[in-house]
Amino acid sequence: MRADGDPGCDVFLTGTVFLDIIFTGLDSAPVRGTESWARGMGSSPGGIANMATALARLGLRTSLAAGFGDDHYGDYCWDALEQGEGIDLSMSRTIRGWHSPVTVSMAYEGERTMISHGHEAPPYDDTGDSGEEGVPPAHSVPPRARAAVASLVPGRPEGWIAGAAARGARIFADTGWDDTGRWDLAALPGLELCEAFLPNAEEAMRYTRTDCPRAAARVLAEKVPVAVVTLGADGAVAVDGGSGETAEVPAIEVEALDPTGAGDVFVAGFVTGTLAGWPLADRLAFAGLTAALSVQEFGGSLSAPGWSEVAAWWQRVQGWVGQDPEALARYAFLGGLLERLLPRACRPWPRARAVPTIGFRRSP
Question: What is the pTM for the complete model shown?
Fold first, then answer.
């Protein structure tokens, strides 16, 4: 739903790209001094690539500014994002002599444990030559975009957020665990520029000094126009601070294979619904649906669903015996939407999924 005069970019984001290696099919957590065998394994771009891929697969023209390692891992991630997903990497750079950050994720019992390794990218050499000596400064002057997604870190200003907002972007933000232990909303630079803030329940309650996620959402809605608090297996709740509207949608019960990146997919779904002008409850429902579909595949970024997967779910769920009519009605808005959108949105080939390597040699 783009209008005349809209910028060519729908969503801009910046961050660190990891190579993710995911082990699934573990019966339990690894035990010290023993060897565990996983029944499944996959490799995929990770980190900020999770969000970028989820946005692109929902049809949003996505621009990513990131540094990529000067190694085979970096080459693989670049190719997977640019060629495989159609993400604009014109503001990204390959950094000479810098290796790709790596995360190993172990999924078991519906949860995951991660081990990461990497080094901070070297500072950008702004001398005007090759432009490949560090993370590009482009994120300080982001392109015109309809929206931008940020991750707010206490005490760490991100100048690009103000730049994006000044150029008309609607800012969506999440956050992570506050290692300082202060849990001070005033220490989140850029929060005042956000249209929507999407923390999880634990983060929201700590930041608001409340003991209920719904109460936390109401407090946060006094700080930002829209507060969304994710409740894990219980769904999500949102409050529109301007109108006072509230919405709560339960989670869709699925058999989770790998929850890696599900939070990023949720945010991507919410951004998509917001840019399309959907009601608050529909945005929440769609975000939860896309996140639920993603955890049934492994590999954070490459588990993200596209419109074809959404359509397949909608067609299948209507035929389930014993389906709760009220629960089905919650997603009725998908019917007309998919009829209009799917012929244009679907790609003629299957979505890439995580595989147990970073590429096979092709026979001549």
Answer: 0.89
